[in-house]
UniProtKB/TrEMBL annotation:
<feature type="transmembrane region" description="Helical">
    <location>
        <begin position="74"/>
        <end position="95"/>
    </location>
</feature>
<protein>
    <submittedName>
        <fullName>Unannotated protein</fullName>
    </submittedName>
</protein>
<keyword id="KW-0812">Transmembrane</keyword>
<keyword id="KW-0472">Membrane</keyword>
<dbReference type="Pfam" id="PF04134">
    <property type="entry name" value="DCC1-like"/>
</dbReference>
<dbReference type="GO" id="GO:0015035">
    <property type="term" value="F:protein-disulfide reductase activity"/>
</dbReference>
<keyword id="KW-1133">Transmembrane helix</keyword>
<dbReference type="InterPro" id="IPR007263">
    <property type="entry name" value="DCC1-like"/>
</dbReference>
């Protein structure tokens, strides 16, 4: 049984790349696009567990802590530290708001989400 479900924006190149990384490195979770989950749009990654829904950097931290790889688990722990958590949330917000531009920059599928102004 999976430890949770990761729901990502299936219209976003960065999100698709991240979901592939999760599928390869964190087998304890199920991964599905927002469409597969039945949501019309998604502003940040969700991690759904029996304890609730986590979003953005908080979700990333919890997902990484489930990895079989020590370096990924440790990264998830570091992201959850009080000061680092604040920085991680800011960085996540900036990337999420600019993901369309960033996706194009890296040659990934451009998001249908409107670009930040």
């Amino acid at each position: 049984m999976a430890a949770g479900v990761v729901v990502y924006d299936g219209d976003c190149g960065i999100c698709e790349a991240a979901s592939g990384f999760i599928r390869r490195h964190i087998s304890q979770v199920d991964v599905m696009s927002h469409r597969e989950y039945g949501v019309s749009s998604l502003a940040s990654v969700w991690f759904l567990t029996f304890n609730g829904r986590y979003e953005g950097a908080d979700a990333v931290s919890r997902i990484l802590r489930l990895s079989e790889k020590r370096v990924l688990r440790m990264s998830g722990i570091v992201i959850a530290l009080p000061v680092i958590r604040i920085v991680a949330r800011i960085v996540y917000f900036i990337i999420a708001k600019n993901r369309r531009r960033i996706s194009r920059l890296f040659g990934l599928k451009a998001c249908s989400v409107p670009q930040a102004r």
